[in-house]
Design brief:
Number of domains: 2
CATH topology of the largest domain: Rossmann fold
Number of strands: 12
Oligomer: single chain
Order of helices and strands: EHEHEEEEHEHEEEEHEHHHHHHHHHH
CATH architecture of the largest domain: 3-Layer(aba) Sandwich
Structural class: alpha/beta
Largest sheet: 8 strands, mixed
Radius of gyration: 19 Å
CATH class of the largest domain: Alpha Beta
Strand content: 15-25%
Distance between the termini: 53 Å
Number of helices: 15
Helix content: 40-55%
Shape: globular
Strand order of the largest sheet: 5-2-1-6-7-8-11-12
Amino acid sequence: MKIAVIGAGAIGGLVAGYLALQQEDVFLVGHADSVKAIKARGLSISGVRGDHHVTLGIAETLGSTPDLAILATKTHDVPQAIKDNLQYLKGATLLTTQNGVRADSLVAQYLPREKIISSIVMFGATYLEPGKIIHNFEGSWIIGKSAYSNDEAFLRFFSLLGKAFPTQVVEDISGMKYLKIFVNANNCIPAILGLSMQEAFSDVEVSKISIAVWKEGLRVVNAAGIKLVSLPDFPLERVTKLVSLPIAEAARIYSGLMSNLSNVPLYGSILQSIKRGKLSEIDFINGEFVLLAKEKNISAPLNTKLVEMVHQVEQNKRFFSREELLNTTRGFIN
């Protein structure tokens, strides 16, 4: 089976590398800097599974039609990635991996819905530089049921992906995708500060902002009538129980959890994009709460402010201080 991975960043590079190590026929599509680096030196992966050096084909666009294309770009890059490779994607099945809930509808503007399989990535990786990736932590790969659910091709795809990560097919991936927004929603805080996850959330006062983000997010999704569904590695109760506690107690628990995530510094996808001079996914994560609130004519002031602050960091190339963050958000926390 021919596999193409479109996007040579943290997740795309990791998936392509691990599949190639399983002797699968994998081709990677990336930007010019990644193409140059990986052609010259190969792909380097380090982290929880040890150090690996992978040799695989890479180019800026596809040159043939794969059986399965794994789309691993950021959500805002989805339309351009599809257009750049459309002639070869029309005959392929495409698997989305993006955070948020918008990627499938963006792809469906170009490809038939029955050729799109939705997924959620629960493993974590950091893009260091072109061709160098750290695999930070393990996690499952959740695959949504689709038109292929009982089809031999779907089963082959599912089996193939399982060679890289533990996989699970689920009925209600939409409810899980909305809960995954909660998993990612606090990545904006270290991005605003320019710190690792562990550095940012070792501060209990900063962790109070995280609890308030979840509390506001729950209010919004409940108003929108969205049913959240537990993820295999992240039960819904992790959010609902914390937000039900007094905020000081909840923040202490959250701080302890996040401070001990990994022995190596973790940088969320939002900060990784900023450090690379790229637009982040903030509009598809916290921005989803803001959009839902507008649709229901209610307010989401904290998430609105955090989205604004991330865009300021993107534009001005200056991180906020702890005091600036706390002062700006203090009125939204209770």
